[in-house]
Amino acid sequence: MEIRKFRHEYINDLTKLQYLLEEGDCDLAREAIGSHLNNLEKTSKKIWLGDPLLDYLLEEKRQAFLDLGTELIWDVEPIGKRESINFSLYTILENLLKNALEALEGAENKYLSLEISKNQGLEIKIENSFKEKPLTRRGRFYRRDKKVARGLGLVITQEEVQKLKGKMDTSVDDNLFTVCIQIPY
Q1: Closest-CA residue to 99 (of 57, 127, 135)
Q2: pTM for the structure as a whole
Q3: Which of 15, 55, 45 is nearest to 32 (CA)?
Q4: Gap between the Cα atoms of 158 and 116, Å rounded
Q5: How buried is 184 (Cβ within 10 angstroms: 0-12 exposed, 13-18 middle, 19+ buried)?
C-alpha cells in the first residue's frame, strides 16, 4: 500500500510541478520539490546508493525480484548524491532492472545479480537468467514468443551511458544475460 500511495503522490507532484513551471511560479515549484524530496527520504526503506530517488528505485525493484521468487545477489556500494549524473543513473537502472524482471517472468531458475561499485569510476554489472535465450538482429533483442522488437530500454540506457562518457557491453550465453557499464566518476 505504501508504494501505491507514493506513486499516486509522485504523479500528482509532477503534474503540479509542471503546472507551476509553466505558470512561472518558481518559488512554489521549489517548495513542492522540497516536499517531494522529504517524502522520498521517508519512503526509502534502506540506503543503497545514498541518493533518496535511487535508493527508492533499488528497494522497489529488489522487492519485486523477491516477490517473483528470484535468487538475488545485491552487492551495492554507496556512491552518494551527485545531481550531475543521478538522473541518468535512475534511467539506466530503471531500464535494466525492468528488462531483467520481464526476462525472469516464467523462467524456472530465477537469478539476478546486481553489483554497483566505485573502482576506477562507477561500475554497474547486472546478470540475470531468462526463460528463453533472446534473439538478436541488428543489435536489438527480440523475444521468441512475441516476435516483437525488444531492446528500446537498452537503446535508452546506451544513450544515457554515452551522455556520461561511459561504455556499456552486453553479452548473452546459454544461461545469463549480462550488462556491464563503466562511467567516469
Answers
A1: 127
A2: 0.71
A3: 15
A4: 17
A5: exposed
Q: What is the DSSP string of 56-67?
A: HHHHHHHHHHHH
Closest among 173, 179, 181 to 113, alpha carbons compared = 179
Task: Tell me the three cell numbers of residue 78.
Answer: 554507496
d(CA 84, CA 76): 20
pLDDT digits (tens, 9 = 90+) for 57-98: 998 899 899 999 999 999 999 887 777 788 899 999 999 999
- DSSP per-residue letters across 75-135: EE------HHHHHHHHHHHHHHHHHHHHHHTT-SS-EEEEEEEEESEEEEEEEE--SSPPE
Residue with cell 525472469: 104
